[in-house]
Design a protein that fits this description.
109 residues; Cytochrome Bc1 Complex, Chain D, domain 2; 7 helices; 5% strand
């Protein structure tokens, strides 16, 4: 019985896009690493230029809600003057965006 419940839980998580997996990492690597770095520290040339946050820092992680991260990925991000800091990520589903946000959460030390 326990095995069946575990399978159902895993299937439900996969269906909602909250199951971490290779797809989230692939999307992150393709769309996010130029600024945020493979490790999430934002310690890249572009990340430094744009002020990318260090997602390994628990305080930074706590300050960013999943909804705000989702919105930034889906709609992009602008500064107070309206300058584009991050373009919207195209060609990804809402479930994939949620998985990328969950993947980003794994950077917290």
């Amino acid at each position: 019985m326990k095995k069946h419940i575990s399978i159902i839980v895993v299937a439900a998580l996969a269906a909602t896009g909250t199951l971490l997996g290779a797809d989230a990492k692939v999307i992150y690597d393709k769309e996010c690493t130029k600024c945020h770095g493979a490790d999430g520290k934002g310690d890249t040339k572009m990340g430094k230029k744009l002020g990318a946050k260090d997602y390994t820092d628990p305080k930074v992680q706590a300050a960013v809600t999943d909804d705000a991260a989702f919105k930034a990925i889906k709609e992009g991000l602008k500064d107070k003057e309206g300058k584009t800091l991050m373009k919207p990520t195209e060609g990804v589903s809402d479930a994939e965006i949620k998985a990328v946000v969950a993947y980003m959460r794994t950077f917290k030390k």
